[in-house]
Amino acid sequence: MTRSAENSDAPVPTLSPLDRARAAAGVLLPSVIKGAIIRRPAGVSLVARLGADTLSVKELQRLSRRHGTGPVQFSMFGRRLAFVLEPADAKRVLDETPSPFSPATLEKRAALGHFQPANSLISTPEERAARRPFNDRVLESTSQTHSHASAMATAVEEEIDALLGHVDFVGELDWDAFSTAWWRMVRRIVLGDAARDDEQITDDLRRLRERGNWAYLAPVRARLRGRFLRRVQHYIDRAEPGSLAEVVARTPASPGTEPAQQVPQWLFAFDAAAWATFRALLLLTEHRGAVDRARDEATDAPSLPFVRATVLESLRLWPTTPLVLREATEPTVWSNGALDAKTSVVIFAPYFHRDDRRADWAHVFSPELWLDARDRDSGGDETGQPDGTEHLGESLALVPFSGGTGVCPGRNVVLLTASLVLSRLVAGHDFSSVHPLRTTHLPGSLSPFTTRFTARRSERTRAVPETSTTGPGGSPGTR
Ligand code: HEM
User: Fold this and answer.
1) Three-class SS of residue 47?
2) Residue 272 CB–ligand 1 contact under 6 Å
3) Does the CB atom of residue 120 touch ligand 1 within 6 A?
4) Residue of the nearest CA to atom 40 in ligand 1?
5) In this structure, is residue 69 part of a structural domain?
6) Distance 199 CA to ligand 1 centre (A)
7) Does residue 339 carry a pLDDT above 90?
8) pLDDT surpassing 50 at residue 478
9) Burial category of 145 from C-beta neighbours within 10 Å (exposed 0-12, middle 13-18, buried 19 and up)
10) Region entry Disordered: which residue ranges (predicted)?
11) Is there a domain that residue 415 lies in?
């Protein structure tokens, strides 16, 4: 048992039945309605209409006022859960991963097992010891610019230029056109150019993820999963130069690594990056001067600090992994008592990211937050890694990519590709949101699926980088 409390034998405070119902309905239910593994657009719209994301944060603020520092716990469906309510406790949980706080919770194992049962995130500590470093090596997790950055940039340029051709034709940009171009780009970056039009592989993954939303309530589709994983292996065997599949093929893997089962997490997680990028486009276009600032730095690509900070702001304001879950492998002691082994410890990211009691910038676009952190933090990147959750993480628990030893190893690949996409989009086009944002107090929810822009070629175009090679054509607006 680690840490000490004034009375380490006393349990952490337990919620009353009424508070338990409010926490379950107010904080956990919206994530179930939206879909944890694949978003249901209707669920996302419903949660936005009900203002449920804002209410979730208020509910946890109320619990923290009532119970003071330290976590609170409650039981649900035979499981014991605890919310951490202090940034220092969130940091502790992330720093002490995977032991005593394992990322491989029962719920995650059931949900992700539908398509990647041997993935690092849901592995035992012994299996994880081989799988997590493999992810770090292939994704070059501590480097802001992956060694395949130029191949990634080519995929971005070609797919975004094809998308802009479609935008010029129809005069607007909607989610369907954006996501079609996005997935062509992702398949090229992860699997190779040959996979650009392989919609079957991402459709198979989508169907498996739909099962994942039901976790252990839905049986595994073993044949579909087998077909999907064989297709992933096919691209690894092909090892197309410039793709992540090629890095997988040449990276030494110790026994038990299961390289092909690490790749689905990357494809799956690029979905979240699409929502974050589309919302970031909205942040850029809705804030005076932001597009000009993005255009001004375009000549320095792939280093795009302001656009990168905008993507991080999109993830702070609307975290794509709202529930960061850990399962205690042993009893743990906190400032206000003890938690049993097997308790699921919940870090609810929006509570920390939108805590207007601690930060006056909670509900406004604040890219300087990340730019300042980057200036201060010479050792890691602006998420405070790899040196632990420094600066931002420590005092505020801004955890869009989680933190500590379980931090997202793809964060730098995501920030690189997302910022290249945004920079390319705004370089020569003016976008205007069909549904303007209230920028003085940004909403708690923002559905990317209903976000839509009118668009036209800009008269004030700056620095549109030349496309380096010609590649596969085709309009992203057509499937
Ligand atoms: C906006 C996009 C993304 C966000 C916000 C994000 C966030 C996260 C978070 C919060 C976790 C921790 C999950 C947990 O502890 O349960 C995680 C894990 C992970 N992410 Fe990402 N991610 C993104 C995209 C990506 C991409 C594109 C890749 C790969 C190219 C990637 C690779 C991974 C891997 C392999 C893990 C598991 C790490 C482990 O086993 O410890 N992520 N990500």
Assistant:
1) helix
2) yes
3) yes
4) 121
5) yes
6) 22
7) yes
8) no
9) middle
10) 456-479
11) yes
Task: Verify whether ligand 1 is closer than 6 Å to residue 346 (CB atom).
Answer: no
| Residue 324 Cβ contacting ligand 1 at under 6 Å | yes
The CA-based dihedral angle spanning residues 57, 61, 67, 71, taken in that order and rounded to the nearest 10 degrees: 40
Per the CB < 8 A criterion, the answer to whether 305 and 374 are in contact is yes
* CA-121 nearest atom, ligand 1: 40
If you average pLDDT over every residue of the chain, what do you get?
91
Q: Is the CB of 367 under 6 A from ligand 1?
A: no
Residue 253 is part of a domain; what is its CATH number? 1.10.630.10
Per the structure, the count of domains in the chain is 1
% residues pLDDT > 70 (the chain): 90
Task: Decide which of 70 and 475 is more confident.
Answer: 70
- Over the stretch 365-413, which tens digit does the pLDDT of each residue have? 999 999 988 776 555 566 655 433 344 545 689 999 999 999 999 999 9
In 158-299, beta strands by DSSP E: 172-174
For residue 49, what are the domain limits?
17-457
Q: Is residue 476 part of a domain?
A: no
Task: Give the number of other Cβ atoms within 10 Å of residue 287's Cβ.
Answer: 17
For a mutational test of ligand 1's pocket, the pick from 135, 251, 408, 417, i.e. the residue with the most ligand atoms closer than 8 A to its C-beta, is 408
With respect to residue 479, please indicate whether it lies within any of the assigned structural domains: no
